[in-house]
Design a protein that fits this description.
With 397 residues, this protein is α/β, with parallel strands linked by helices. 46% of the residues lie in helices and 16% in strands. The protein is built from 16 helices and 13 strands. The strands form two sheets. The protein has a seven-stranded parallel β-sheet with strand order 3-2-1-4-5-6-7, sandwiched between helices. A six-stranded parallel β-sheet has the order 10-9-8-11-12-13, with helices on both faces. Helix 1 packs across helix 16. The longest helix is centred in the middle third of the chain and has 24 residues. The radius of gyration is 21 Å and the shape is globular. The two termini are 24 Å apart. The model has no long low-confidence stretch (mean pLDDT 95).
Length: 397
């Protein structure tokens, strides 16, 4: 196999948030088979300063993404393009791609996230793999359905234009990848694309192991935990819903129960939740395992979720009892080892039942860990990627 060019919308290392975790493991897997050159954006100063991992086999070019949203929106309206693309449109990345393509025998391009597909060169190499991860246009369609006024129009515009872009890219590439079979099926249905398949996320069960060496968080005895990037809209909506509509129902039966929102960059709306009875907002923590290990129950009450939620896999691997919403559980083959609630009352009831029966909660957590060990090792999840990347040459159109 010749060189691979890996394009990523965010530096894949360290693997400390959902999108970076998948990109990190895919990149590491590819580096075990070929020389891989990385071109990526950084939107966190620490990621910009961090050097590439020792196992990266090719060149690494990381550029700062600092375009303000108002400018990206203005460009999108003037150029009749999705904001998702103009926000990531950068001449420096385009130059970096051209430079690597000119100096190296790149025969495969792996594009991670739809925003980076705009950097595909006009003349494609032998093989192009497009890892959409999730169907972003469907996410914006969901946003539009819940919005009102100008925001509804803007989200509907984004959904329509982004789906057209996704369809056009799928027609050009050799494989379109998604994080779950449900997401892949949705993409086929909505776009009519073929050469679509699922490459699921995995979990490192040696790192996420309750017996591993890490510091346990100083948490209340009865604590319900949510983990995630806390400036991300679906996470903000999830914890707001839980704190305002679900936690009071739980505390009516379990007055000592607390809800800990654990994750970096909490938005002001999240910080404000700390004023509510029983709510803790930690901000960024050094090691999320400490809070998972201290939890009585881990919750994922997402109203909008696409694909496989890493936060759920991490909690399962840590042998914690998990209660999730239907969208958060949908992409995970959990085999009944997590509890799923369809509304606020159902989620509250499931959490309350686990708080009341610690033995049952512990047994559910152990069953969840056994399930991810069987089903979600990264080696098993990424094994089909070898065939996808090594496929034959593109047929002439």
């Amino acid at each position: 196999m010749s060189d691979i060019l890996f394009l990523a919308h965010r530096v894949p290392y360290p693997p400390d948030r959902g999108d970076k975790i998948r990109a990190f493991h895919v990149l590491q897997h590819l580096c075990g088979h070929a020389r891989v050159h990385l071109v990526a954006f950084a939107d966190d100063a620490r990621d910009l300063e961090a050097g590439p991992p020792a196992w990266l086999t090719g060149e690494c070019k990381v550029l700062w993404r600092g375009k303000p949203r108002w400018r990206a929106v203005g460009e999108a309206l003037l150029q009749h393009r999705p904001v998702s693309l103009t926000a990531f449109d950068d001449a420096g990345i385009r130059d970096a791609v051209a430079d690597i393509m000119a100096r190296h025998a790149v025969d495969t391009i792996y594009v991670f996230s739809g925003q980076m597909a705009q950097y595909l060169p006009p003349a494609l190499p032998r093989r192009v793999v497009m890892d959409f991860v999730d169907m972003d246009s469907a996410k914006f369609a969901d946003y539009a359905a819940a919005a009102r006024g100008p925001s509804r129009w803007m989200m509907a515009r984004e959904a329509k234009m982004l789906q057209a872009f996704e369809r056009s890219i799928a027609e050009r590439v050799d494989a379109s990848l998604f994080v779950s079979t449900a997401e892949a099926a949705l993409f086929r249905t909505e776009t009519g694309a073929d050469r679509v398949m699922a490459i699921e996320n995995g979990i490192n069960t040696q790192v996420f192991d309750p017996a591993a060496d890490f510091a346990r968080a100083d948490a209340p005895d009865e604590v319900i935990v949510f983990t995630g990037q806390m400036d991300y809209r679906p996470n903000i909506e999830a914890v707001t819903w839980f704190a305002q509509a679900i936690l009071p129902q739980i505390r009516a039966q379990h007055p000592q129960a607390h809800f800990a929102i654990v994750g970096r960059a909490p938005a002001q709306a999240v910080k404000a939740l700390a004023k509510l009875p029983g709510v803790i907002v930690t901000g960024e923590v050094a090691d999320v395992r400490g809070w998972l290990a201290a939890s009585s129950v881990v919750v994922a009450p997402l109203k909008l979720a696409r694909g496989i939620q890493n936060k759920v896999l991490e909690a399962m691997a840590m042998a914690r009892p998990v209660v999730a919403s239907v969208p958060a559980a949908e992409g995970i083959a959990h085999a009944g080892t997590i509890r799923v609630g369809s509304d606020a009352s159902a989620i509250a009831g499931a959490v309350s039942a686990l708080l009341a029966d610690r033995d049952a909660a512990a047994a559910l957590g152990q069953a969840a860990r056994a399930q991810v060990q069987r089903r979600y090792s990264w080696a098993a999840c990424l094994a089909p990627l070898d065939t996808v990347v090594a496929g034959g040459a593109r047929q002439a159109a």
